[in-house]
Amino acid sequence: IVIAGDRGLAGGYNSNLFRFMESETKDRDYDVFPLGRKSVEYFRHKNVKLFTEEYAEVAKVGVSDCFEIAREICDAFRKGEYGHVFLCYTNFVSMLNQTPSATSLLPLSDFRTGEKRESDGKAKNLILYEPDAAQVFDAIVPEYLAGLIYGAVCDSLASELPARRN
Q1: pLDDT (tens digit, 9 = 90+) per residue, 49-75?
Q2: How far apart are CA 57 and CA 59, in angstroms?
Q3: What percentage of the chain reaches a pLDDT higher than 90?
């Protein structure tokens, strides 16, 4: 998921994000879920497969849209279409500093270290889910991801305005 601006004339706002995203995905095959008109245009020009072009205006993306995006991403992940999903956006640091960043969304990682848990083959505490794990995934994970996506959308919009002023 790449969140870019809707308009140009923001200095290096969009180009820094795209350069960062390209460095993160170097030598990998990937599809893009673009949010923002500049994101759609950039990846269409690069001939990268787009997940959808439905959210071409990031300024109009609301909380309900983020829930829909999260459901679509989770469905594609559960079907095995994608092995890894990450979110690339611009992090608002201050009025003079906005930095591109990436966050891994799926598969879920250990929240303390940011690393995926490795199994050592030893028996661990068993966690039984009522109902089954698939229903728990369907109920909780899309809502968690929607919150992360909406936070990144707000952060990106807050970053674009000072970049345009500078």
Answers
A1: 999 999 989 989 999 999 999 999 999
A2: 5
A3: 65
pLDDT at 111 over 70: no
State the pTM of this model. Answer: 0.83
Task: Copy the structure tokens of residue 96.
Answer: 């003079």
Give the alpha-carbon dihedral of 124, 130, 136, 138, to 10 degrees: 140
Q: Which residue has the tokens 């674009």?
A: 160
Residue 4 in contact with residue 157, Cβ under 8 Å?
Answer: no
Confidence bin at 112 (pLDDT 50/70/90): very low
Which token pair is 60? 């109009």
Query: Rounded CA gap, 109 and 114, in Å?
Result: 6
In this structure, the strands spanning 85-94 and 97-106 are antiparallel
Beta bridge partners of 92: 98
**Cα(89)–Cα(80) distance, integer angstroms:** 24
Residue of 102, 80, 107 whose CA lies nearest to 90: 102
CA dihedral 110, 85, 164, 60 (to 10 degrees): -110
Taking the C-alpha atoms of residue 66 and residue 83, their distance in angstroms, rounded to an integer, is 21
Q: Which comes out higher in pLDDT, residue 59 or 116?
A: 59
